[in-house]
What does this fold into?
Amino acid sequence: MSGRYMGILRGEIRSTLQLMQIDEKDHATLFEKIMIMEDAALGVMNRK
It folds into this structure.
């Protein structure tokens, strides 16, 4: 998507998950859910 907001920064999300001691096997599921929320939010956030 284009606009002012580019989306999540995956490196920072991964670091946060590691700091929170969330099992790496759960990272893919969490990323999938975050990307769904991101897709829904970016359209609204990028409206003029």
